[in-house]
Each structure stands twice: as structure tokens, then as C-alpha cells.
Amino acid sequence: MTTTDTIETTTHAGGADPGHILQIGMGFWASKTLLSAVEMGLFTELGDGRLTGPQIGDRLGLHQRSGADFLDALVALGLLDREGDGPGARYGNTTDTALFLDKRSPAYLGGILEMSSARLYGFWGSLTEALRTGLPQSEVKTGAPSLFEGVYADPEHLEAFLDAMSGLQLGAFNALAHTLDLRGHATFCDLGGANGELAATIAAANPHLTGTVFDLPPVVPIADLHLAGKGVGDRVTAVAGDFFVDDLPAADVYFLGNVLHDWDERGKQALIDKAYAALPSGGILVAIENVIDDARRTNAFGLLMSLNMLIELPGGFDYTGAQFDTWARRAGFARTEVRHLAGPTSAAIAYKQ
């Protein structure tokens, strides 16, 4: 069963069917059902085995009116599996939800969904205003600290945020680490490297490399701890700095994981220029992002992520491979390529002669 099966419509004359329109228009129903399930820890509760509806209701504090529809909606959406019918039916995780939505799984990506439920779901209700004004609709709209200012001021929230960001791209990081040939390089630096997940993945796949995670001071202890836990702390270290202000750590390869899209075009160009100037001959710059297809027709996630940047930040946007090529060549890079990694994510790679 897929979400496209959940709204039945009558085919109109000529074969026209509004089902696709209605499915997208009412898509927030399914979205919030999943987000609430993650928020309440449903998939983690089911990590030890199947439970009946009443058992789940007791553990999550569900009202008796809501439980059956909530759980069966998740079954219909392909997010839970159910054995049996009625009050005695037993619910369990699917293969995917067990892997990605149980907090005890190393592949857990629910952090980004938790943040989406707590923050973005409400902010996206003001998309129309953002489209008309070009202004963020996040915390800054009310004069509160921005996402980065607020998160970086709170160590506990910062660690959760960094875990959420890295969890979103685990598959892409692994794909990159096992397909990018780095045998001709000795050092790398992940600019804005967050908790060090990308750096740890690259280092694990390339035992000859040493590396640096370069990020703001509050991130350094979190990254050092994560790198040590991944077993690469002897080869990868975290260094405090601001990539717009400070000199970049020397490296043969620079990574920008989910960083470029945070900035306006001037900021993007400044980062690419700075990386080019710091790289040796033969060095490369790798940007991991939801790179939009040049025709701007197929990578819906990348285009929607760009709208999310409109909601979140004053100048951020996602970009096409052609745009990246323009900025990279302007900086002096000899050539670029876009390499698909996983899902909607690609690596935009620039090569210095």
C-alpha cells in the first residue's frame, strides 16, 4: 500500500483524475502522522517486539478515541506492520522503520524528523508569506535567535541538531566514501564538519588519510568525542574556526557537507574561492547536497529543500550542477562533475589543476 492509494477519486471525462492533486494537497495529513509517531517514540517502543493497540496506547499516553485510527493509518502508509485484526491485533515495525526510526539503531535518522515536527512543520504554514516577501519565517521572524544562534548556544540541543543533520545523509556519506578515489591524496578537511560523521566515514574507508573537522568552537568537543567513538580519533581531529574569517586548515581535499545551501550566492562564491586558494595543485572540493537537476524538473526534494532554505535563512538556496560549475570555474577550478550518491543527494566535485 502506498500513499497514492489513500485517496480514491472519480475519473473525469477524458480520463482526468484529480487524485494526484488531492494527494499532494492533503499530504500534510500523512506527514504529521509520521512526525507525531516519531515525536512520541512509537518506533523505538516497538523495537523489542510487537505490541497490541491498547499496550501502545498505555505506553504513549494515547486517548482511546485516537489509537486505532493512528496505528492503522501508519499501517496503510506502509510504516507499520500489523498481525491480525481488531483490539487483539499486534503492531510491529517494518524493515525500514526498524532500521531508520528506532533510536537504538546506528542508522537512526529520526532526529531530522523530530526537528521538523518541533520547528519546520509550523514554519511551513507561513510559506505563502515567504514567497511574497522573500523573508525567513523561522525564529528570526519574531526577533528570537536564529536556528544557528539558538542551537549553538545550548550544548544539549546542539548535539541533537548535529546528530539530526548527519543522520539525514548517512547513506550519501557512505556512498561517497566508497566511490570517491582518494588514493592520490593524503589529507582532507571537512568544512563545517558538524559532529564529524562525514569525516569519520571518509577516514574509515581510506586508512591512509588524515583529516580535520573545521567548525565553530562549541562543536569541537562534540566532534572529538564522536570521532573517538568511531575509532578514527587518532587520524582525524576537530579544529575550531570560522570558515569565512579564519584560514582554512591545509588539506588536499575539502568537503562541504550540507553547507553551501545555507548561504546566498555571494557567500557560496566566497567559500568556493577560499577553498580554491587553499588547495594545492591537484586538489579537489566536494560539496554534498541535494543538487538540483539542471533542467529543474526531477529532483523535487532538492527544490523543496531550497524552499526550506527560504523558510529558514535570509539568503540560502539549493543549486544545480550548472550553477556549481559556474561558481567553481569563476574561482579557478579546471572542471567539475556531479556524482549521484543516494536518494536525492549528489556530490558536486571541483578539480584544481
UniProtKB/TrEMBL annotation:
Keywords from the named record: Methyltransferase, S-adenosyl-L-methionine, Transferase
Cited Gene3D superfamilies: Vaccinia Virus protein VP39, Winged helix-like DNA-binding domain superfamily/Winged helix DNA-binding domain
Keyword Methyltransferase: yes
Pfam families xref list: Dimerisation, Methyltransf_2
Residue intervals of the O-methyltransferase C-terminal domain: 124-334
List of catalytic residues: 261
UniProt keyword annotation of Repressor present: no
Gene Ontology MF terms in the entry: O-methyltransferase activity; protein dimerization activity
Listed GO biological process terms: methylation
Residue span(s) of domain O-methyltransferase dimerisation: 26-101
Name recorded for this polypeptide: Methyltransferase
